[in-house]
Amino acid sequence: MAKKSLLGKMIKVKPTPEKSEEEFVFNQFTNLERELLPQDAGSGWLIKSEEGQLLVDIYKEGDAIVVVSAVAGVKPENLEISVSHDLLTIRGQRQHEDQVDWQNYYYQECYWGTFSRSIVLPYEVRSEGAKAILKNGVLKIYLPRAFKPKIQKIKIDEYED
Question: What are phi and psi of 135, to 5 degrees?
Answer without folding.
Answer: -140, 125
